[in-house]
Amino acid sequence: MHVKKNDTVLVISGKDKDKIGEVLNVNPKKNTIIVSGINIVTKHKKPNRENMQGGILKVEAPINASKVMLYCNDCKKTTRIKHEFLDDGSKVRVCRHCKKKI
Questions:
Q1: What single-letter DSSP state applies at residue 89?
Q2: Mean pLDDT of residues grouped by 10 in the chain (102 residues)?
Q3: Residue 21 in 3-state DSSP?
Q4: Which residue of 34, 67, 78, 81 pairs with 25 in a disulfide if CB–CB is 3.0 to 4.6 A?
Q5: Under DSSP, is residue 82 helix (H, G, I), strand (E, B) or coil?
Q6: Which one, of 19, 94, 100, 97, lies nearest residue 63 by Cα?
Q7: Domain count, the chain
């Protein structure tokens, strides 16, 4: 997957288009991610031991990873990532616009 947990992403299609958020959870098997403040849905919860009152809750639902693009905080642009190898052999993700590590 092109995004990882704690990355900043911009939604490129759907009802929350052009919103920026942070990735909270990644599910590579289903190719879905959960982004903070994006794709908010209402859930009706019955009262139980943890939630005595119950009621209507607003939670983030997963969206497909293809609907988001990585957002570089340094150059304030969306970008595709480029992989580079450092001198010690480790692989890092690099912004294509500003050439900084992500």
A1: S
A2: 93 94 96 96 92 90 96 92 93 93 88
A3: strand
A4: 34
A5: strand
A6: 19
A7: 1
Range of the domain at 59: 8-73
Q: Are 27 and 62 in contact (CB under 8 A)?
A: yes
Residue type for position 73: N
Antiparallel, parallel or unpaired: β 63-64 and 20-27: unpaired
Distance CA 36, CA 41 (A): 12
Q: What is the largest CA-CA distance in the chain?
A: 57
- What phi and psi values does residue 11 have, to the nearest 5 degrees? -80, 130
Please answer whether residues 81 and 99 qualify as being in contact, where contact means their C-beta atoms are separated by less than 8 angstroms.
no
Inside any domain, residue 46? yes
| Residue 82 resides in a domain | no
pLDDT on residue 93: 94
The pLDDT value given to residue 52: 86
pLDDT value of position 43: 93
Name the pTM for this structure: 0.84
CATH code assigned at 46: 2.30.30.30
Is residue 50 domain-resident? Answer: yes
